[in-house]
Amino acid sequence: MSTTPISATLAQTERDAVLQAISTIKEKLPFLVDLSSDDRKTLPKMGDKSRAFVSKALEVAAQNPEFLPRSFDLDEMRKDVQLFEALYPVLLSLTQLQELVDDTSLAVGSEAYAAALQVYSYAKASGQGAGLDTVVAKMGKRFTRKPVKLEPKEPML
């Protein structure tokens, strides 16, 4: 894996502007819903193949409304399809942005952690007598492991 080191800063004003932009996006999409994990599992999903199916079904329903029951709301179906199609490029763009933010956060976090490990290593090596013993001990707690409880094995008969 080859990653170029990230050497950047994010000023408070820039961060605030990004957060405000996200807030503006939420305001522009007041109909967004928050589904439970159970809802996510049970709802039918619309992928690329389903998009073509839904589009064809809308055409059939629009051209042949006589076979639909009176309770079927064709206008609502049309609105749902139009909203889905309008949201799709937004979803793709936000997904790409989230992947970039995730990857950048992972990479810069890795860089910071690697640097911290170096500091810890240097402090351990040269910290004795320099007043770093307490700090090194506190930093070392990061690496202490809880003992694994071994369950007694039943004797084989």
List keywords for this structure.
single chain; 157 residues; 5 helices; mainly alpha
Would you kindly provide a written description of the structure presented here, covering whatever features stand out?
This protein starts with 11 loop residues before the first helix and ends in a 17-residue tail after the last helix. The protein has a domain at about 45-110. It has about 160 residues and is mainly alpha-helical. The protein has helices spanning about 10-30, 35-40, 50-65, 75-125, 135-140. The mean pLDDT is about 90.
Q: Which structural category fits the helices and strands?
A: mainly alpha
DSSP helical segment count? 5
Q: Could you name the ranges where pLDDT drops below 50 across 5 or more consecutive residues?
A: none
Radius of gyration: 28 Å
Average pLDDT metric: 90
Number of strands: 0
Written as H for each helix and E for each strand, in order along the chain, the element string is HHHHH
SSE blueprint:
Layout: H1 12-28, H2 37-42, H3 48-63, H4 74-126, H5 133-140
Helix pairs in contact: 3-4
Concise overview:
This protein is mainly alpha-helical. It contains 5 helices and no strands.
